[in-house]
Design goal:
By secondary structure, the protein is an alpha+beta fold. It contains 3 helices and 23 strands.
């Protein structure tokens, strides 16, 4: 019986030694290949503890995982921690218990709820000349900057001279789409010009020069702009037009005369051509004169007919 127990003990020891050898051999091969389990940013790492050192400029931060702490490498420290750099490594260190965020261990930049920041320290109450702001979690002046009177530490009701009120804040210059009202001392919305639709084109009228005519159209201003609003566009437009063809007067006649003078005056053909032009002009004038007489006669007859009908 004792012999059998001795043999069993030897076999168990042999099996444990063989398993231990396999474990060390596996770790040796893994170390030889490089560690594939290292997270990004790690320079060296451990299977059980994560990152041990980080690449340059990165901070090492310890995250709790149950009973263990796992190292991670970050570009900046998380909320509630501040970064410290040294030639050996860059660490993330925890802020003080009253700080929500901090610049270093002795200087808070934001406090936890229930305390208020004043000169880098978190306090439960503020000095006499300041009031607590629950929104900012800071000790602030009783009125916002440039206020003359205020509703609370965040809302102005009237500004100091040279400033204009908008949404409870005072501005030296009004933001875009607003303009200052000197009467109200407030920033008021800018009013832009508004115009209606174009009218139809008007009659084709002769303007100054012979044979030159133009027509016009307009549109109305529906809303005049405020001093800093967008100005009104053009409210009238003109364009050249062409009416019924009539004699153009002396201008074109002079042009034809000058053109004829350039011809060879000694040429009989030139004289005959000028004579034909004069005859055509005379005929055109006689025709227009006759048309005008006919129109006048027709208007006279229509007027007589209306008079007889009225009797």
């Amino acid at each position: 019986m004792q012999l059998q127990q001795l043999i069993s003990l030897v076999l168990i020891l042999h099996w444990m030694e063989d398993a231990d050898c396999q474990h060390h051999s596996s770790k040796h091969r893994q170390h030889k290949r490089g560690s594939p389990v290292c997270p990004g940013g790690c320079l060296t790492c451990s299977v059980y503890n994560g990152c041990l050192t980080c690449l340059p400029k990165l901070f090492i931060h310890l995250e709790r995982d149950g009973m263990r702490q796992i190292g991670v490498c970050l570009a900046s420290c998380p909320k509630g921690f501040f970064g410290t750099r040294s030639p050996e490594k860059n660490d993330c260190s925890k802020c003080g218990s009253e700080c929500d965020t901090c610049f270093d261990k002795n200087f808070c930049t934001r406090c936890r709820a229930g305390s208020y920041l004043h000169k880098g320290k978190c306090q439960e109450s503020c000095p006499d000349e300041l009031v607590p702001s629950d929104t900012k979690r800071e000790c602030v002046p009783p009125c916002p900057a440039d206020c003359d009177t205020c509703l609370n530490s965040e809302t102005c009701t009237r500004c100091m001279p040279g400033y204009y009120l908008l949404h409870g804040q005072c501005h030296s210059m009004c933001p875009e789409e607003f303009e200052p009202s000197e009467q109200l001392m407030e920033c008021v919305p800018a009013v832009h010009c508004e115009v209606g639709e174009w009218s139809e084109w008007g009659p084709c009228l002769r303007i100054g020069k012979p044979c030159f005519r133009e027509e016009t159209r307009t549109r109305k201003v529906l809303q005049n702009p405020s001093p800093q609003g967008k100005p009104c566009p053009a409210t009238s437009e003109k364009r050249e037009c062409f009416g019924k063809r009539k004699r153009c007067g002396k201008g074109p006649h002079k042009e034809r005369k000058n053109r004829n003078n350039r011809k060879d005056k000694a040429s009989g053909e030139g004289r005959r051509e000028r004579k034909r032009e004069r005859e055509r002009e005379r005929e055109m004038g006689d025709r227009e004169e006759s048309e005008n007489r006919n129109k006048t006669e027709q208007r006279r007859r229509r007027a007589q007919s209306r008079d007889l009908g009225a009797v």
